[in-house]
Amino acid sequence: MPKKYPLEFKKDVAAVARRGDLTAQAPSGDGERDPAPRGGLLCLGHAPKVMFPLVRDLAADGLPVRLTCGVLGFTAQAYYKWLAAPVSARDLEDAYLTRAGRRPWR
To answer: What global pTM score does this model have?
Structure first.
């Protein structure tokens, strides 16, 4: 079961969603520059699976799914696809193999 998000975090996301501020970012320090964008783990276009439970929690609190997904930077379709099958076949197979690999060592 995924870890619940803190209430303060949910309130911050809700406030950003209500304002429609899609460019909200933490300010840089004095003299610091933002790092150059790279194709890392959190690049645009790839919704991290850890964000989908947050969308589910915020939807239960009454925030629209489409608005929340837009603020977080992915489509509502990606969320609904995850909602239909939260555990992929690959994740299930990996868990099975990990457990099978640990059995002989008990």
So the answer is: 0.49
